[in-house]
Design a protein that fits this description.
Layout: H1 2-10, E1 18-28, E2 37-43, E3 46-52, E4 59-60, H2 63-68, H3 71-98, E5 107-117, E6 122-130, E7 133-139, E8 144-146, H4 153-160, H5 163-187, H6 189-192, E9 198-202, E10 209-217, E11 222-228, E12 231-232, E13 237-243, E14 249-256, E15 265-271, E16 278-281, H7 290-322, H8 329-342
Antiparallel strand pairs: 1-2, 1-5, 2-3, 3-4, 5-6, 6-7, 7-8, 9-10, 10-14, 11-12, 11-15, 13-14, 15-16
């Protein structure tokens, strides 16, 4: 469930021409068989580390993270995650009191991180959630906390008064986070390099559904547009962006097409792995007469061969019926001569 939530959060919030560093912390009330606290770090869509309350230590999730960071780094990360684990327990108790909830399973979540765009501009974000809904977020420009729920005002007022803590968050989001992101991008340059998609049209049998299949791309941010005679088909459908087994992504976009429609259908794809937009046109499969012609010629040749073989066979049979063999006269003469001598 936690991994699914992270995947959903990763699917939005960051533009196509940018890189991001994000951390997701999840604390829950005790559930048998599950850790009460889990935290994961991501650079773009690649998970770089993991910590949970059962494991009790931060561990790498990418080979380049394991190879580039020493023991001191992982010990320091473990201490940070332990702090967030303890902080989550306190926040769960506090929010349960504020929201008048004394029992049940509850979840306290935090997402923090930063974004570095291609034009050099940056963005930072820190937000907390309760039971899957937004609770409070940090406005770093005005150095205040913002909440969409009335009972969240207690937390807002308390956190707004802690100026030192707010100053830390602003400094982290605008400075420390960006520097670490740049460092990770250098270390994982090979794995984080954009991979261009492959694009093709598919149409099953007599089905009216025409699909544009785009697959093998990384990162997941992509724009796919189906067009009819150059005009965007707003009614086209999609199954979203799905992961492939090799870490890349795929997406399908489709529309229903009248078999008699002779318009030109195209699929336009925009992705960071492409130097320019890719446009692929749908090519209708025309009925070819070549196989039929070849089949007729082969049948004709076989018929001629059969006729020739038949004629030769019957001529041979006819010759055997009308011919004769001469008697061996030498054998008969010898018999007569021998008989006369013996008398």
């Amino acid at each position: 469930m936690i991994e699914l939530t992270v995947l959903v959060l990763l699917c939005g919030g960051v533009s196509a021409d940018s890189h991001s560093l994000r951390y997701f912390h999840t604390s829950t009330t005790p559930i048998p068989g599950l850790p009460e606290f889990v935290t994961v770090g991501y650079v773009d869509e690649l998970q770089i580390d993991h910590y949970d309350s059962d494991l009790k230590k931060a561990v790498p999730r990418q080979s380049w993270m394991a190879e580039s960071q020493g023991l001191d780094y992982w010990e320091e990360e473990t201490q940070k995650r332990w702090f967030w684990e303890e902080d989550g327990k306190v926040n769960i108790r506090n929010v349960m009191k504020q929201s008048n909830q004394s029992t049940g399973i509850h979840t306290w979540q935090m997402m923090c991180g930063c974004e570095l765009r291609d034009d050099g501009s940056t963005e930072g974000f820190t937000q907390f959630g309760w039971d899957g809904k937004d609770l409070i977020s940090f406005d770093k420009e005005n150095m205040v906390w913002v909440t969409p729920v009335s009972w969240g005002e207690i937390t807002k007022n308390k956190w707004d008064q802690n100026k030192a803590r707010n100053q830390y968050w602003k400094g982290y989001l605008e400075g420390i986070c960006i520097e670490w992101l740049k460092n990770y991008l250098k270390l994982g340059e090979k794995e984080l390099r954009p991979v261009a998609p492959s694009v093709s049209f598919t149409r099953r049998g007599d089905s009216n559904r025409l699909s544009c299949v785009t697959t093998g791309f990384y990162p997941q941010a992509i724009e796919v547009t189906l067009r009819r005679d150059g005009v965007s088909l707003d009614e086209s459908l999609s199954d979203g962006i799905l992961p492939n087994h090799d870490g890349t992504y795929q997406t399908h976009k489709w529309t229903d097409v009248d078999p008699e429609d002779q318009a030109k259908f195209s699929c336009e794809v925009d992705h960071s792995g492409l130097k320019e937009k890719m446009v692929v046109f749908y090519e209708r499969k025309s009925v070819s007469l070549l196989p039929i012609i070849v089949g007729v010629l082969v049948a004709f040749v076989l018929l001629i061969i059969a006729v020739i073989v038949g004629v030769v066979f019957f001529k041979k049979k006819a010759g055997e019926k009308t011919g004769y063999n001469q008697a061996k006269t030498s054998d008969r003469g010898e018999s007569s001569s021998n008989s006369s001598a013996n008398a």
